Amino acid sequence: MKFSDFGFKENPFSITPDPRYLYLSRGHEESLAHLIYGTGPNGGFVQLTGEVGTGKTMLVRSLLEQKMDNVDIALVLNPRVSRRDFLATICDELGIDYQGPPYLLKELNDKLTQHLLKTYEAGRHTVLVVDEAQNLSPRVLEQVRLLTNLETVRHKLLRIILVGQPELQQLLSRKDLRQVDQRITARYHLSPLGRAETAGYIRHRLAVAGMRADLFTPAALQLVYLLTRGLPRKINTLCERTLLAIFTTGSRRVTGGLVWRAAGEIKGRYRGGWIGRWALAGLVLLATASAAWWSLSELDRQTPEVLVRVQSLWSRATEEIREEMAQTDSAVNALLPETAHETSGKIMQVEEITLPKPAAMLASRELEVVSPRFVPPRPTIRQRLFALWGKTVSAEFAQEMCNQARAFGLRCQHGSTDWDDLIRMNRPALLTLKEGDAQRQLLLLGISGGKLLIDDGDEEGWVQQSEISQLWKGDYVLFWRPATVTFVGPGSSGEAVTWLRERLSMADQKPLPTIIGLDHFDDELKQRLQGFQGRHGLEIDGMAGSHTMIFLNNLQLPVGTPTLRRGE
Asked: Per-residue confidence of the chain (568 residues) as pLDDT tens digits?
């Protein structure tokens, strides 16, 4: 089959890791941010894990496409080798001359160290990326640990990124490898796509390939998710086979029936008669009903005012179930005509399922009566930080502040910075003060001249900035609310890129260019972004990560965003 014969520029669902097709879901966005962090001046030792087929190699290829200035990357794709071969592979990637085979381990190590020192003196830094790192032997992993010892007084000469399957986590948990595990400074586990992300992934790849993004019906998209569980490699395989089915049948759109048939052709058609029909109908029913049930579960954290809206959503969801069931029933009738008559009654029985009513569920709950004499304890400074964003959490949940912030649609920004950068970010922040081995946190609420408005956990008041500066070494944590995704860079497309163009046009005071079709991150946008980063004292990497996003958000803050107070 030639995809060009059907209007495609190329196969939109090829399993080869082409960075142009990278879809930045929340997990892939965070993963790419970790990889980019690993190449930066503070990268150190980074670990990225994920199940087979989640897109780890695609992320590695996308990292190589970033065209980062002053960065040399050595990529090891087959780490199932000896220590000598491992070091020899690194030398080959970096263009280092050596003698062998046979290889002398000491010579390879000395050659690599000399090269890294020269590279550092030239103002460049080197990154080692190991893909399929779960295949590293313990002896080679120990060699990797020794490579992290290559450093100057202030900087590591070699940054290391390990990318692998979950078995890598198990490998590093071994007692004899605890020294390696303790060196890792950042970890992230990439999960499969969710239902909405799976639909977005399919539409994105179709758009990049030059085909309309609505080729798959909603029922087909839900069925693809349920059959693949959101694994990109499985999605590609199933969708590629489905496109062949639509071409051979002459259909205008991909329906649930075509997806089901494609799945059968991949794994062998299931001949279970009415059982296959029931399975397909049940999958669609489950996909739609689960969305409505999730909404009901949110009632625990909502006020009664949202009850009418949730009841409406529930009613709408039940109608969607019936519509999806009707579509599926028709599709499967065409696919399995010999079983259609005998199972039509069974399908109708599914439609008559009585769903629980949210009003009855809410009324059955007992209301907690709180004594008016009870005086709650003063919130902790972490609870106060949540309260500034209009969120209420218990002291226990506040301890896991970054995970809890994500549940509220917020993001955690943390690291080390200076006063100027912290003030320009313009968000309340937790500051970590250190004196000897002791440390504590303060909540920064405002600034005026040489004074800071702080909350130390007992009371709120103004203090001299010089007093805090003696104990604050730059460590901070703050919240911010992303207007779009938290990373936009090479490989990004769609609304997030358009939002970035709008903000940069606002900053440059230039009209927004007209974009026809899917908006892509291009070289012109990268140059404008670098100009913005340079003017605001940010790292000029041409990628809108969380730090840059905060400054872009500051150009037009949403109503209700807490900022540092000014004046006494």
From this structure: 555 545 567 788 888 888 888 888 888 888 888 888 788 766 678 899 999 998 999 999 888 887 677 788 899 998 888 888 899 999 999 998 887 777 788 888 888 988 988 888 888 888 999 999 999 898 898 888 888 877 766 677 888 999 999 999 888 888 888 888 888 878 888 889 988 889 889 888 888 887 777 788 888 888 899 889 999 999 999 988 888 877 777 777 888 888 888 888 876 544 334 444 445 555 555 544 544 444 444 434 444 444 444 444 445 544 544 554 455 445 444 444 443 333 333 333 333 333 333 333 333 333 333 334 444 567 888 889 999 999 888 776 666 777 778 778 888 888 888 999 999 999 999 999 988 778 889 999 999 888 999 998 888 899 999 999 989 989 899 999 988 777 888 767 788 888 999 999 999 888 887 777 778 888 889 899 999 999 999 988 888 888 899 999 999 988 889 999 876 5
The DSSP-derived string for 49-96 is EE-TTSSHHHHHHHHHTT--TTEEEEEES---S-HHHHHHHHHHHHT-
Buried b (16+ CB within 10 A) or exposed e, 48-74: bbbbebbbbbbbbbbbeebebeebbbb
List CB contacts of 198: < 8 A, sequence separation 6 or more.
Answer: 221, 224, 225, 228, 230, 235
Residue carrying structure tokens 């909404």: 295
Residue type at position 253? R
Cα–Cα distance between 535 and 182 in angstroms, integer? 38
Angle at 346 between CA 341 and CA 347, to 5 degrees: 90
Type of residue at 143 = Q
